[in-house]
Amino acid sequence: MDLKNEFPHREGLIYLNHAAVGVWPRRTADAVKAFAEENMLQGAADYPRWMGVERQLRKRLAWLLNAPSVDDIALLKNTSEGLSLIAAGLEWQAGDRVVISNQEFPSNRIVWESLAEQGVELVEADLSCPDPEAALLALCDERTRLLSISSVQYASGLRMDLQRLGHDCSARGILFCVDAIQSLGAAAFDAQACRADFVVADAHKWMLGPEGIALFYSTPQARDRLRLQQFGWHMVEHVGDFDRTDWLPAHSARRFEPGSPNTVGIYALNASLSLFEEMGMQAVEQMIMERAAWLIEWVIHQPELELITSAEPERHAGIISFRCRDLDRAGHERLYRSLMDAGVVCACRGGAIRLSPHCYSDVEAFPPVWRRVRASGDL
């Protein structure tokens, strides 16, 4: 596959920010352009074909997750919506406990904090220890209803052992929820092997899709425990039978999709996932890990830098975070802005510079720009 043709960046751009917003492949831009042209010329005259693309997307998402069935996949707007479906859908009792970590993105913290008015206790495990999974599991007791964790932590890049967590939760009757936004599209994922009850993830990061569309995975047993919060024509079992006055929620995860689908988002994400399907997720992950390893090695050999992300291959995916020993938090913000001005698209998270290359990224182009920025004297 010609990745340079799929990602024809403008000259001088070094895009290392897929943990924030990923780049669309050429095929995705072409799919959206063609869909827009079709809408302009004939509207929804070929709507059945649109639904065929939607079915294809569900199949590709099921493949990406190793989900048992496309019935386990719902198409939502974003990760926060998916997590909110779980938090609002479960029947809580005062004294119930939810366990998360102290490194979560706000989406996977605020939603559980909102349950405090129902008497639900939220506890956070400190992951800055030799055994972060043990720290999480140590907080799980007989009152714990759910453990929710990011597969990869957004700032530190710490990769969690999901199988260990999922197997322990399953054995103890605790629901296991995974925010997979920082790993889907970057690393192979197996919802069945890690025994996840719920998996949520936006399309716009490592999956190289658009904002405004996300996947929501649930096992049949888990989704049956969620009270529905939204209703409409699209979430019923007999969808499309508009004359029918009786209704039941769809048996599948489509029950969480109340209204009209985000068709342009579906076309875009389906095109993006075709790239992963053609390459194979094992190959994509290997290429990302090679780039991450190269950057980690580079950071380690810079005396002025401190690596935040673990150098152990099993403990990171595509995120590499590091700090400059001579800069405070404000200094890192200035450094980040200087890097952006120099054409390096990156992020500043947790008082550190965060790089997140994808399978096509030219990471070796980064150090020369870094040296020029650091030598500029503006920091």
Shape: globular
- Portion of residues in beta strands equals 5-15%
Distance between the termini: 41 Å
Number of strands: 13
Q: Based on helices, strands and strand pairing, what is the structural class?
A: alpha/beta
State mean pLDDT (0 to 100 scale). 97
Report the oligomer.
single chain
Number of helices: 12
The largest β sheet comes out as: 7 strands, mixed
- In percent, how helical is the residue content? 25-40%
| Largest sheet, spatial ordering of strands | 2-8-7-6-5-3-4
Low-confidence stretches: none
Order of secondary-structure elements: HEHHEHEHEHEHEEEHHHEEHEEEH
Report the C-alpha radius of gyration, rounded. Answer: 22 Å
Characterize the structure shown.
The protein has 379 residues and is an alpha/beta fold. The chain has twelve helices and 13 strands. It has helices at 3-6, 26-42, 47-65, 79-89, 107-113, 132-138, 162-172, 220-223, 263-279, 281-300, 329-341, 366-375, and strands at 14-15, 73-76, 97-101, 121-125, 144-150, 175-179, 198-202, 214-218, 305-307, 320-324, 344-345, 347-349, 352-355. The mean pLDDT is 97.
Concise overview:
This protein has 379 residues and is α/β, with parallel strands linked by helices. Strands 2-8-7-6-5-3-4 form a seven-stranded mixed beta sheet, sandwiched between helices. A four-stranded antiparallel beta sheet has the order 9-10-13-12. Strands 1-11 form a two-stranded parallel ribbon.
